[in-house]
């Protein structure tokens, strides 16, 4: 294509620069790619990038300008260390397809000049400008995909045609708009919406990028609900210095490792993984036949691109159906036939990282009734395949593990998980509220009303915990009439405390995630139980407000009706005394204070 740019735009291109923002594997902190972002547009008189492209569009030179800018970005991309191992995400203005001089093949020539694979380029399209005409989509985006370029939908969810675009374009990547990720850890509605987008995308074999992530809470929540990749200021601000683009980002790697699942989970996945030899997407059908002759027990084959990234699966039954149909073998071996192209025979397949939680894998599998299994990746490369049978084995192992770690009466997590939770809280750099609950006068109640009613009281308290504390709380049963609750919260302490006195809560200034808000939730549990447990008593005992039973010395004594005491300890973000033995001592002292408190709870903080 000839350079058709007016002189002033050639000069403007010299002023403009490219910044890169990294896109990371959300499970490891390793780089997956970079997005090219335009900079210095203010220096040529534009307030925004959109104003710049609107002018270029109106001058009818959008395609010519974009090709020149594309080469500028690709040239700078090659300055990044190990650029051939990552992807370049390049934003397309959809309107360039309307330009009279639009033609295919220019990008292929550019990357050939710079020794870059097509699989290393991902074109981003947005809902910001409508794609006009089905023929335009067929002519361009499908052409890019056929040529092994990747396609990403940017800002997914902000426009009116998102799902239609998803259907028409069949993208490789979706970038979830920042709106849905802002404070997602606190917003159940956003979490549900993003989770549903993820479920749909994964079943279609599409990767998900959490775009615009600005806090560690957002990052960890996005990881936990199934996002594959992450981008945003929390990772790194866009930079014009290619030397600042790293292969691994230590602060992300450290964060996700500290908050990662047990090694037992990963080993459970690995032990069930089938290391099936994959096929490359450009494999000819004659070699596909040879593959099945060599691997006679294989019925599902993962298919990968030149970068070893999974693109789907090939089913042996479909190849056989075609092979045994009239003229089937001729069609498969005829290079002019669509059926001779392996890429036209592959089926979408869900994929996830080896570091994913087993619940993510099970959820992906369960949401697709026709699923043959899940492709497992490691740093976005094909690693193995989990068949339906393997996933069922994982589910069974997880159920057995949960059963072992649960209290048999309440089905709440037991002591091993409590110890793990406390250990993680102490060694993190977050603010945690932890609470031990102890039912008061429980032995006397058991002696008078019997163990069966005692069990019913225990179940009542566990139900109150489940129904009145949201999912941010870790709820557990130590055993007998002792329970444990923990929760991560914001850093501010909005109550005054002393080791021997009751606290006073600043209710008006309590934010939803603050320490005091969490303590108010615990206080509500106390009041709820004291009120509800009265229904277990006879009318006379309820009226008297006590029962008569024997004390430990065998003497008859009046005992108050059942209540519950809560010993609460805040492990503050800035606490220097993060020691488990000290925590145990503080809890022991606070339990005694709580027993004698008219409010039934006491609070202390590790400073």
Description of the structure:
The chain is α/β, with parallel strands linked by helices. The chain folds into three domains: 7-260, Alpha-Beta Barrel (TIM Barrel), CATH 3.20.20; 270-398, Roll (CBS-domain); 406-606, Reverse transcriptase/Diguanylate cyclase domain (Alpha-Beta Plaits), CATH 3.30.70. Helix content is 40%, strand content 22%. It is built from 22 helices and 23 strands. α15 links the parallel β12 (351-353) and β13. The longest helix has 18 residues, at 388-405. The chain is elongated, with a radius of gyration of 30 Å. The relative contact order is 0.07. Mean pLDDT is 85; it is low at 492-513.
Please give the structural blueprint:
Blueprint: H1 7-15, E1 17-25, E2 31-39, H2 49-58, H3 62-77, E3 87-91, H4 106-113, E4 121-126, H5 134-146, E5 150-156, H6 162-169, E6 173-176, H7 178-181, H8 188-203, E7 207-211, H9 216-224, E8 229-231, H10 250-258, H11 263-271, E9 279-280, H12 285-294, E10 300-304, E11 310-315, H13 316-323, H14 328-333, E12 351-353, H15 358-366, E13 373-378, E14 381-387, H16 388-405, H17 415-427, E15 431-440, H18 442-449, H19 451-468, E16 473-479, E17 482-489, E18 495-496, E19 504-505, H20 515-532, H21 539-544, E20 546-550, E21 556-560, E22 563-571, H22 580-595, E23 601-606
Parallel strand pairs: 2-3, 3-4, 4-5, 5-6, 6-7, 7-8, 9-10, 12-13, 22-23
Antiparallel strand pairs: 1-2, 1-8, 10-11, 13-14, 15-17, 15-22, 16-17, 18-19, 20-21
């Amino acid at each position: 294509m000839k350079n058709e740019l007016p002189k002033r735009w050639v000069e403007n291109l010299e002023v403009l620069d490219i910044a890169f923002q990294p896109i990371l594997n959300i499970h490891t902190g390793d780089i997956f790619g970079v997005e090219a972002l335009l900079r210095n547009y203010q220096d040529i008189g534009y307030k925004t990038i959109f104003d710049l492209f609107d002018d270029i569009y109106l001058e009818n030179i959008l395609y010519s300008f974009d090709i020149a800018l594309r080469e500028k970005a690709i040239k700078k991309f090659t300055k990044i260390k190990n650029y051939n191992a990552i992807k370049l995400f390049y934003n397309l203005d959809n309107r360039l397809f309307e330009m009279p001089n639009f033609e295919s093949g220019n990008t292929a020539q550019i990357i050939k000049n710079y020794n870059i694979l097509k699989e290393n380029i991902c074109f981003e399209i947005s809902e910001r400008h409508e794609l006009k005409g089905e023929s335009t989509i067929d002519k361009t985006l499908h052409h890019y995909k056929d040529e092994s370029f990747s396609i990403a939908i940017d800002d997914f969810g902000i426009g009116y045609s998102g799902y239609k675009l998803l259907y028409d374009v069949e993208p490789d990547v979706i970038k979830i708009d920042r709106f849905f990720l802002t404070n997602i850890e606190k917003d159940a509605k956003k979490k549900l919406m993003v989770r549903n987008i993820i479920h749909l995308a994964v079943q279609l074999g599409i990767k998900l990028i959490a775009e615009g992530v600005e806090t560690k809470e957002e990052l960890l929540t996005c990881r936990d609900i199934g996002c594959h990749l992450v981008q945003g200021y929390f990772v790194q601000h866009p930079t014009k210095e290619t030397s600042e683009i790293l292969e691994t980002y230590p602060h992300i790697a450290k964060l996700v490792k500290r908050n990662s699942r047990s090694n037992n989970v990963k080993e459970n996945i690995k032990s069930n993984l089938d290391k099936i030899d994959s096929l490359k997407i450009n494999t000819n059908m004659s070699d596909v036949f040879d593959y099945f002759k060599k691997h006679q027990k294989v019925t599902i084959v993962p298919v990968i691109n030149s970068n070893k990234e999974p693109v789907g699966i090939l089913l042996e039954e479909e190849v056989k159906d075609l092979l045994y149909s009239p003229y089937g073998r001729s069609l498969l071996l005829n290079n002019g036939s669509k059926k001779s192209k392996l890429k036209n025979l592959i089926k979408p397949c869900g994929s996830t990282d080896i570091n994913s939680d087993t619940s993510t894998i099970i959820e992906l599998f369960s949401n697709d009734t026709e699923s043959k299994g899940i492709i497992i990746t490691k740093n976005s490369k094909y690693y193995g395949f989990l068949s339906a049978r393997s996933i069922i084995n994982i589910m069974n192992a997880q159920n057995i593990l949960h059963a072992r770690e649960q209290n048999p009466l309440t089905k709440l997590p037991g002591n091993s998980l409590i110890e793990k939770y406390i250990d993680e809280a102490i060694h993190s750099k977050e603010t945690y509220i932890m609470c031990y609950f102890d039912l008061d006068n429980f032995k006397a109640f058991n002696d008078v009303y019997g163990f069966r009613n005692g069990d019913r009281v225990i179940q009542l308290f566990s139900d109150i915990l489940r129904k009145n504390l949201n999912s941010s709380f870790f709820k557990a049963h130590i055993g007998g009439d002792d329970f444990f609750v923990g929760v991560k919260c914001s850093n501010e302490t909005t109550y005054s405390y002393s080791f021997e006195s009751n606290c006073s809560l600043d209710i008006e200034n309590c934010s939803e995630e603050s320490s005091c808000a969490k303590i108010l939730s615990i206080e509500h549990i106390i009041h709820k139980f004291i009120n509800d447990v009265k229904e277990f008593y006879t009318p006379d005992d309820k009226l008297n407000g006590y029962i008569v039973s024997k004390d430990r010395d065998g003497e008859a004594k009046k005992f108050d009706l059942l209540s519950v005491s809560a010993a609460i300890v805040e492990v503050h973000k800035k606490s220097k005394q993060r020691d488990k033995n000290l925590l145990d001592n503080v809890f022991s002292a606070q339990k005694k204070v709580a027993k004698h408190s008219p409010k039934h709870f006491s609070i202390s903080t590790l400073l």
